[in-house]
Design a protein that fits this description.
The protein has 409 residues and is mainly beta. The protein has one domain: monomeric porin ompg (Porin), CATH 2.40.160. The protein is 9% helix and 53% strand. It has 3 helices and 21 strands. The strands form 3 sheets. It has a 12-stranded antiparallel β-barrel. Strand 19 and strand 20 form a beta hairpin. Helix 1 crosses helix 3. The longest helix is centred in the N-terminal third of the chain and has 26 residues.
């Protein structure tokens, strides 16, 4: 997806992760594939998590129906896939004399809450993710005389960015209604940027390629089930996610004397905190889901020189986040989901040479299509593809996850 052209006028503007004018820095991308501003916004995860929670409830109910019909030997009482019995347990409904079952793992979306991991169960989830982004930017380092006349240097920049992320996520059920989680990502990023001077003296295009690999931003999360879905209430889960700054942020990487990056960042460079609420509404033959949250990025004193400017303090913009969708089962092993996620990211404030600059706010929207295949009692495969539908969203994001369940107690 080609980015909309943005105009920056004046000597230096550093906002939303973009430094322009005297310093032609990259848009500072997060260690987790995210939005253009690069301060650790993981907008696609809201949708991904909702999809998986909904798939779990739906498949959980279908599996119980098959066991009631005498198919337990085929589908397994200990399957990590969701079952009707488990849904009944989560909803506080009677489950007869069937043997106790462990709670299944959350396939493609444990990160935002839903039906949680059963007490004493550990889920290890290796994952692989690919993200591609195509950014176009129109930069003017001049003085505007009238609305249609701009004197100064005009540059056009196009950047092709690819991010490969391998991660290991561990989730543990402390109780049947409380789950803790940790995620450790490792990233490889490469970027090819082409800059063309348009005015006043047209020059040839200058192409630069940079790449780096390093640990990303480690995340910690907790999920607590607030309601069980009895009566008119949906299944509701409260979530709290904390993202660290363990990756190399945009102010930690090496630059040349002109302020240009010699390597891409693998982290956001800022801590963030995100409370959210997930709701699931079963309605055969589908399960509807929604998630709402608010992402708080903590500001910090950067106190660094990029090119010939002093960057003193950066306060990344916070974000309102929401997603909704539906999940449905095709058979006893395969289920699919559809959804939409949207983030409204507020302005980023940057103090440069004693003056406060503000970026534009961002609108980040993505459509998602997900699928889950349960190929054994303890393991399944989740595939999810997301396509950006707004100018500020990544073009495409492809994710593979392999949750594996272990009963510790």
């Amino acid at each position: 997806m080609k980015r909309s052209v943005t105009l920056f006028a004046g000597g230096v503007v550093l906002a939303a992760g973009v430094a322009s004018g005297n310093v032609h820095a990259e848009e500072m991308a997060s260690g987790e594939p995210a939005t253009r501003d690069g301060f650790g916004f993981q907008f696609a995860d809201a949708l991904q998590n909702g999809n998986d929670r909904a798939l779990e409830v739906f498949e959980r109910r279908d599996r119980r129906q098959n066991r009631i019909s005498g198919d337990a030997s085929m589908f397994g009482e200990s399957s990590p896939e969701p079952t009707r019995r488990q849904f009944a347990q989560a909803a506080g409904q009677p489950v007869g004399e069937e043997p106790e079952e462990r709670r299944p793992e959350v396939e493609a979306i444990r990160e935002r809450g839903g039906v949680l991991t059963r007490q004493g169960t550990l889920i290890l989830e290796p994952s692989f993710e690919f993200q591609h982004d195509n950014v176009s930017r129109f930069v003017a380092g001049g003085v505007q005389i009238i609305d249609t006349v701009l004197l100064g240097v005009i540059e056009v920049t196009e950047a092709q960015r690819n991010v490969l992320t391998a991660a290991m996520t561990a989730r543990y059920g402390v109780t049947d209604r409380f789950e803790v989680e940790v995620k450790v990502p490792y990233l490889y990023r490469d970027e090819e940027r082409t800059t063309t001077i348009v005015e006043p003296d047209p020059e040839g295009a200058d192409t630069r390629s940079i790449s780096a690999h390093n640990i990303g931003d480690v995340e910690f999360a907790g999920h607590y089930q607030l309601t069980t879905g009895t009566g008119f209430l949906p299944v509701t889960v409260g979530n709290l996610r904390v993202k660290s700054d363990t990756g190399r942020g945009p102010f930690d990487i090496d630059r040349d004397l002109a302020g240009q990056e010699t390597e891409p960042s693998t982290g956001s460079g800022f801590w963030s905190l995100e409370p959210s609420v997930t709701m699931l509404i079963p309605s055969d033959p589908v399960v509807f889901f929604t998630n709402v949250g608010y992402l708080v990025n903590l500001s910090r004193d950067v106190e660094t020189v990029i090119g010939d400017v002093q960057v003193e303090r950066v306060r990344p913009g916070n974000a309102f986040r929401g997603s909704f969708g539906m999940a449905f089962g095709l058979n006893q092993q395969v289920s699919m989901s559809l959804g939409y996620s949207h983030d409204f990211i507020q302005k980023t404030e940057t103090v440069i040479d004693g003056q406060t600059r503000e970026s534009d706010s961002l609108q980040v929207g993505a459509l998602s299509l997900g699928a889950h295949y349960q190929f054994s009692e303890r393991a399944g495969l989740n595939v999810n593809v997301q396509a950006g539908v707004t100018d500020d969203a990544p073009d495409v994001r492809l994710m593979f996850r392999l949750p594996i369940t272990f009963n510790l107690f």
